[in-house]
Design a protein that fits this description.
about 375 residues; alpha/beta; Aminopeptidase; seven-stranded mixed β-sheet; about 35% helix
Length: about 375
């Protein structure tokens, strides 16, 4: 049986009470008597009572020095966020804790704290509609701010709009982790009308012969963009003739991702001997190749979600490591993999190209060494 995921809900002075209690209750009710989730509160420097903006007093379960490392970090908003976003000790803790957690979910102006913690680079984000101008002021230039939605899912980072939208986002994450049926049942127990964002539902499935043309288009577009942006061919366009892609889909485990009828990404998983890994190759890993995302959907966290899916797929087959390679001369993509917790294991050089080799241990799997 899987261990319950630890959910830490951050507290600070003048936090919004419902930003805290809404997601707290959603995960607590969905916990199935503690089997799925263990939910607790944490404040930065002490577990002295915290007064919310409405005057409710909450006793934190932990301070940050003794808080168990969470799998899910909830960062609520409130009037106090406008002050605490300038508290470097707090934003540093949010940054460090978020990078160790599997998911981070902000509610309302909690997005300001994520922005100041450096967690919104190249992501889509939302907040309370009355605080959108403030988020525009502090969010990085690379972030895309989205209005009139309940929440935005970037994979590891989820931001939600104001107050009760935090419940919707929490239920969305419950559904991602334990299925829609549990989320619907939880919403029913809360007597809450779960407002979902259908546009945020990314469907990932095994590719078939009918997907050949869309996969070919995704790969060609990616190859052409890399050449135009970086001046080299990571993949040669001639490598994607239709019959080659047909054989690729037929002979390998290839996956395609779509929003509705719109294909937005693909990748493949391999298990056999990988020459570029040399003596480092081992069979306790799945090897991801040709991962690409539609340029129209840049910054929406699709790449993170594809990697998360691949990690789950590989882990379910008893492997302990996810491995991939990245063109060494593509700095932004290398930085992306490092930001996801991948560790550089070496470099492969050939006459026309070089690749950096990365791996990440699969969550919950025993360490191989």
């Amino acid at each position: 049986m899987r261990k319950a995921k630890k959910v830490a809900v951050l507290l600070y002075e003048q936090v919004d009470a419902l930003d805290v209690t809404g997601p707290f209750e959603a995960f607590a009710v969905a916990s199935n008597w503690g089997q799925h989730f263990q939910v607790y509160t944490v404040a930065l420097e002490s577990n002295a009572p915290i007064r919310t903006i409405s005057g409710l007093t909450i006793q934190p379960d932990f301070d940050s020095s003794e808080c168990p490392v969470p799998d899910i970090l909830i960062v609520p908003g409130g009037w106090g966020a406008r002050k605490e976003m300038h508290n470097e000790k707090l934003t540093d803790w949010i940054n460090e804790t978020s990078r160790r957690a599997a998911f981070t979910l902000s509610v309302c102006t909690g997005a300001l704290l994520l922005a100041k913690a450096g967690l919104l680079d190249e992501l889509r984000a939302t907040t309370n509609q009355r605080a959108m101008d403030l988020l525009k002021e502090y969010a990085p230039a690379s972030a895309t701010l989205v209005e009139n939605v309940r929440y935005v899912d970037n994979g590891r980072i989820i931001t939600s709009a104001g107050v009760t939208a935090g419940i919707d986002a929490a239920l969305h994450l419950v559904a991602k982790l334990h299925g829609e049926e549990l989320a619907i049942d939880t919403a029913s127990r809360l007597e809450h009308n779960w407002r979902r964002e259908p546009s945020e539902e990314l469907a990932i499935r095994r590719a078939t012969a009918e997907d050949v043309d869309c996969i070919r288009s995704l790969l060609i577009d990616a190859a052409q963009w890399i050449h135009s942006a970086h001046g080299f061919w990571q993949w040669r366009v001639e490598s994607f003739e239709r019959e080659i892609v047909e054989a690729f889909v037929r002979d390998h485990e290839v996956f395609v991702a779509a929003f509705g009828n719109e294909p937005v990404g693909c990748f493949s998983v391999h298990w056999g001997r990988e020459e570029i890994w040399g003596e480092q190759f081992h069979d306790d890993a799945g090897y991801v190749h040709r991962l690409c995302v539609s340029r129209k959907r840049k910054g929406e966290g699709i790449g993170r979600e594809l990697i998360r899916y691949a990690e789950s797929y590989i882990g379910d087959r008893g492997k302990s490591w996810l491995r991939l390679d990245c063109m060494a001369d593509n700095p932004s993509l290398n930085a992306f993999y490092l930001s996801l917790g991948f560790v550089l294991q070496g470099r492969f050089d050939e006459s026309l190209w070089s690749a950096n080799l990365y791996e990440r241990e699969i969550l919950g799997k025993a360490t191989r060494h």
